[in-house]
Amino acid sequence: MKSLVFLQVEPQLVDGHISYFLGAVGMPGLTALLGVREKGHVTDGANQTMVVSGAAGACGSVAGQIGRVDGCTRVVGICGSDEKCRVLVEDLGFSAAVNYHQGDVATALRESCPNGVDVYFDNVGGPISDAVIAQMNNDGHVILCGQISQYNKDVPYPPPLCDETREALQSKNITRERFMVLNYMEKHEAGIIQLSQWVREGQIKVLETVVNGIENMGVAFCSMMKGGNIGKQIIKISD
Fold first, then answer.
1. Mean pLDDT by 10 residues, the chain (239 residues)
2. What's the rounded Cα separation, in Å, for the pair 210 and 119?
3. Is the entire prediction scored with pTM above 0.70?
4. Which residues, including other chains, have CB under 8 Å from residue 85's CB and lie 6 or more apart?
């Protein structure tokens, strides 16, 4: 029953911030950590550039910070507002951020990733991911974490790629494998310990959007699905 250990909350790991176990030191954080470590192949000193889509969310915001901690020279986030871009760069230490609602994503990526892209933490799929993969270097790695832009479509998972993207993956020898954090249960305990240590040391900063009152849960959920949250969406029901 080893997997049940992680249901036990130990407040000292997060200096009493219990909500962190729902985000940066919980399943979203583990997904970020194990995704980067198992599928990203980040090598310290290799001058790698990482791009993260959905970068201001609970998982993406942690994934980008882990890429920086693990040695990526540049970490670029893609998100949906200028305020989110500001937070990524000024608060979380991303090298640059791209607002996909403003201008052409491909052009912004070329400016932000002058040496191409080596690692892509993909949370969204669709045209944004096509634009990133088109600028990836040979032998790069796509961490296939989520495809949220495609979930309302009647297609299999992972969703099929356009011909140009599929050709880019093949011709450049880019890996793109489905990733599920639950396939790495044996690494969860060590991951929680590592994440909590980084948080306590300030190497990873935690973003939360907190709404008070369970009666406001529906409004908070709808806001989150429209991109209204920065970091983990939290409903606070008690002190």
1. 53 92 96 97 96 97 98 97 98 98 95 98 94 98 90 80 95 93 93 96 96 95 92 92
2. 31
3. yes
4. 77, 79, 97, 98, 99
